[in-house]
Amino acid sequence: MHDENATPAPEESTDQSTGGSSRRTVLRTAGIAGAGLGLGAFGTGAAHADAPAEAPAGASAAAADAAPAPAPARKGKTMIGVPFEARSTVRVGIVGLGNRGGSMIDLFLALPGVRVVALCDPVKDKTAAAAKKVVAAGQPAPATYTNGDHDYEKLCERGDVDFVYVATPWDLHFDMAKSAMLNGKHVGVECPVAMRLDELWALVDLSERTRRHCIQLENCCYGKNEMRVLRMAHAGKFGDLLHGAGAYNHDLRGLMFDPKYYEGPWRRLWHTRLRGDLYPNHGFGPVANYMDVNRGDRVTHISSFGTPSLGLAEYRKAHMPPGDPSWKETYIESDRTISLVQTAKGRVIRLEHDVSTPHPYSRINSLGGTKGVFEDYPERIYIEPDHTDDEWGDFGKYAAEFDHWLWKEHANPPGGHGGMDYIMVFRLMQCVRLGLVPDFDVYDAATWTAPVPLSHASIKAKGAPQAIPDFTRGLWKKARPGMDSEKPKES
């Protein structure tokens, strides 16, 4: 998934107490944790109520207490429904060429009408290897930026870049997205788009003020099953929607302790700083799409609970030699985080996160309504009147009618994660080339990422509900298109 990038934080330190991580990264993320992840400002609080129309029937006093403070004043016009500017060729700059960025470049190079013009990564060998791929694809040699912490800023300043793709460690995402937009570039960011609530509001405001799109590159929204369920939900096959669930349950212990996989321990070090859901987007994004969140419904508050943090310490004891820098670390991240999210219409979404214990991979990916339910891992479905006698049905029988046109047109897409990476990049670049409205926008990016700081706050408050800001500033009430798109005509 999107966590598979391995671009290092610049200025690698040999300080054993940080496991060789960047001094800049350590100081910045430590400051984030100490500042409460920006929870004290930008539209969150416990003393202000939303408009009465938002409160679901039977809402509890605790839910009312979790209502957000008024949103900050809008600094520009909304980006809802704003199309890209059409162009015959999309010129892309890539920041971060580790495991994720180094593989995703292949997909950008495979698309017609897309040219990779600039690359940035402090690790010169990785930048050079990516540059060779560009030339091998028949494109001119790209400009390269490998000079320390802030060289990405020079890439963003270029006049021949239309879209910046960011695949770096999480705590760098905000600054890079900000730089891209301030320099007039649209930007797509791997998950999560930022780590603090105030940063999420800042990205919303920057997108509106600069008129540049800030896209959360959530590949799981483009999964074949996810897109089929989306179209079935919109066709009413599940009846009135009631509940859904999504997760990132992925055993990453071996990778997080592997010095050759991530360059520096940046991913593992987050487990020393936060207790909540570090990576909600893969599970949250698809379910939010099923329920038209920000397009007729919105998520209002989240309650989170976490188990003790035992898994990484046990793995370290069993696998890491004495004297390894990881022995300096104290893990506080819950081995499993479980969150319940309520929507304005009273629906419930369950989110889970677990990368520290042994179990098969699962995103859960379920949706239920008054006519039935779908559950993934393994895929199965039960909806009336198609199924009876409490026997699961064959989800594959709905492919012909409900598979999205993207999957019908690209039946065997290249790339990782079952092809959904390619589908995501193809569709995004298509929207940029043809001047279409993107399938999701900065408001979705902020909403899908908000559980990172808010789940941490809720766990610290023993599960007390935390308000999820309305990043649309009231415009969620208007229905509008999302990912269930029609195939566009190529000009």
- In spatial order, strands of the major sheet run 13-12-11-7-10-9-8-14
- Number of E-state strands: 14
Task: Compute the CA-based radius of gyration.
Answer: 22 Å
Strand content: 5-15%
Describe the main β-sheet briefly: 8 strands, mixed
Q: What percent of the residues sit in helical stretches (DSSP H or I)?
A: 25-40%
Characterize this entry briefly.
The chain has helices at 23-34, 61-65, 99-109, 124-136, 151-157, 173-182, 197-210, 224-234, 253-256, 266-269, 281-290, 311-319, 399-402, 405-409, 420-434, 442-449, 451-460, and strands spanning 90-95, 114-120, 143-145, 163-166, 186-189, 214-216, 241-249, 299-306, 337-343, 348-354, 366-369, 372-375, 380-383, 466-467. It is 31% helix and 15% strand.
Task: Describe this structure as you would to a colleague.
This protein is α/β, with parallel strands linked by helices and 491 residues long. 31% of the residues lie in helices and 15% in strands. It has 17 helices and 14 strands. It has helices at residues 23-34, 61-65, 99-109, 124-136, 151-157, 173-182, 197-210, 224-234, 253-256, 266-269, 281-290, 311-319, 399-402, 405-409, 420-434, 442-449, 451-460; strands at 90-95, 114-120, 143-145, 163-166, 186-189, 214-216, 241-249, 299-306, 337-343, 348-354, 366-369, 372-375, 380-383, 466-467. Strands 13-12-11-7-10-9-8-14 form an 8-stranded mixed sheet. Strands 3-2-1-4-5-6 form a 6-stranded parallel sheet, with helices on both faces. It is globular. The two termini are 33 Å apart.
